[in-house]
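Entry details:
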Amino acid sequence: MISDRGEYKEFSDVLNKKGFVKVAAPWTFRHPEFDTVIDILPFGEIERSYTENFDQRSTDLHVIGFMEVLLDPRQVWNEDTLVNIPTLPGFIILKMTAWSDRPEERGNDLGDIHFIITSYYNLNWDFILDNHVELLDLLGDKGKDDEWIIATRVLGRESAAYLQKSEGLKKEFWKFQIKI
């Protein structure tokens, strides 16, 4: 969470020194040598009404859900740095709201959600067993299809906790449900 525009600029400058360059979207940086693209999404104290405005390009970036999701991060080590990342249910919330906001520009979001669902059952078997064992009654003779149904239900239950943290996020999610 970046607390002000100055901090965002400082972080952008560090990325530039490491070889990253800004591309069309003002929050996106690309490293040409490694063909790596990252988005630096400012949110927190500098967002207003779930939106961050990048003045020089008159671009609004909707950041609804970021605060709620990253208040409960998972921590992973990246080399010698501890990094906060969203949980998979939180990541799905972010992907769904991003897709709902600009489906014509967000072609990968639904595929990413599908990938999470199809992988979740095996990756989180112990969690499902410890916290959602009653869903195992859904297992039948459909094999992978049953696993996807269970994974989807668990992800839905776990994602719902984020909706309870914010009326704005809950309202946004209801809007999404109406679209489909």
Summary: The chain has two domains: 1-63, 72-180. The longest strand covers residues 74-78. Residues 144-163 form the longest helix (20 residues).
